[in-house]
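[step 3/7] inverse_fold.run input=structure_tokens len=366
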């Protein structure tokens, strides 16, 4: 089936009124100013992807994503067969950067391909997990520590079994936050932390052993990505996994970090590597006996379901962060993602199994 039309539709959806902006060591988020990608085929089918501009990481903006799709990719992809994914990847990889524009196009084309073949995307890719994936929720930095603790308790009350807590500022305050959250949620819930490169070596070496004593099992990007010596020192001296995210934007980054030897887990973000490059990263990490998790980029429904399909496909994916979806006030989907007892339940229809609500798209598009 050939691609006949490609659309890049910008939209904005805010957080729920009761949700504070999500803060981390180097940024803040309070709304989704994203881009819906729709790729149509010659028989009337359409596949969907979602691109999230994160200028501090990828240098993209909402307008820039639309321009990239319309000027770099649209005309070259039109007329291509959705089954020719290697040729399609060649077009997508022709232009460097544009991470989430490429990733969303890749997802939309794979959605269209799976719809054409009549199977759920995760089954087409591998089908390892039985139609559901475990999810962790992000507990962001708040003005008051008590607010972060309350957020953690709410997530646990929803049935979530794992929390990721944002840290990376004052290590003493970070430790106090972890202790307060542990006291509030008890000992049965798994906790890991994300410093977003916010600590230096001294802060990380002081905070992490004390956090391990509170049951923290993993830390994401504890020090600047370029501080190779500190990452190795932490990996060798502290009983904690290092989860890499900002260090591994590309497959080449992943290979470099795996050879370095500090990585304990790799964060795969479907919005930035799509389906094809995510698959390559997951397979490569498996060769090094390193597991992967599917990270979040604050996706709304389209991106959340796409990332869940990517997670459910592979044996080497052991968790996701997709409960971040619960912070949005609304969605573009007819049926919102379904969460049960710490799992996200995948739709069983072909492709992503989703349907866009035209009234919602009209309401939120910009």
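[step 3/7] decode complete -> sequence:
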């Amino acid at each position: 089936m050939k691609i006949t039309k490609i659309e890049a539709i910008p939209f904005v959806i805010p957080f729920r009124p009761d949700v504070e902006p999500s803060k981390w060591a180097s940024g803040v988020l309070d709304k989704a100013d994203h881009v819906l990608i729709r790729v149509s085929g010659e028989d009337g089918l359409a596949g969907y992807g979602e691109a999230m501009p994160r200028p501090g990481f990828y240098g993209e903006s909402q307008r820039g994503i639309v321009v990239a799709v319309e000027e770099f990719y649209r005309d070259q992809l039109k007329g291509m067969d959705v089954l020719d994914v290697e040729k399609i990847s060649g077009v997508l990889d022709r232009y460097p950067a544009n991470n989430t524009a490429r990733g969303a196009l890749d997802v939309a084309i794979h959605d269209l391909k799976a719809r054409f073949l009549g199977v759920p995307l995760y089954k087409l890719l591998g089908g390892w997990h039985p139609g559901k994936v475990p999810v962790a929720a992000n507990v962001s930095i708040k003005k008051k520590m008590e607010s972060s603790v309350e957020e953690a308790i709410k997530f646990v009350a929803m049935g979530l079994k794992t929390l990721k807590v944002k840290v990376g500022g004052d290590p003493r305050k970070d430790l106090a936050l972890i202790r307060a959250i542990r006291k509030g949620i008890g000992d049965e819930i798994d906790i890991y932390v994300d410093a977003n490169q916010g600590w230096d070596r001294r802060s990380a070496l002081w905070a992490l052993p004390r956090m391990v004593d509170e049951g923290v099992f993993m830390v994401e990007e504890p020090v600047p990505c370029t501080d190779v010596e500190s990452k190795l020192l932490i990996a060798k001296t502290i009983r904690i996994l290092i989860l890499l995210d900002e260090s591994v934007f590309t497959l080449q980054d992943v290979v470099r970090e795996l050879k370095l030897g500090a990585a304990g887990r790799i964060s795969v973000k479907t919005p930035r590597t799509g389906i094809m490059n995510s698959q390559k990263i997951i397979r490569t990490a498996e060769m090094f006996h390193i597991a992967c998790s599917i990270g979040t980029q604050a996706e709304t429904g389209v991106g959340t379901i796409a990332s869940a399909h990517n997670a459910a496909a592979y044996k080497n994916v052991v968790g996701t962060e997709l409960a971040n979806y619960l912070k949005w006030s609304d969605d573009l989907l007819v049926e919102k993602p379904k969460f049960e007892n710490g799992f996200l339940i995948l739709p069983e229809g072909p492709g992503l199994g989703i349907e866009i609500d035209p009234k919602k798209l009209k309401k939120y598009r910009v």
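[step 4/7] annotate
The longest strand covers residues 3-14.
The radius of gyration is 20 Å.
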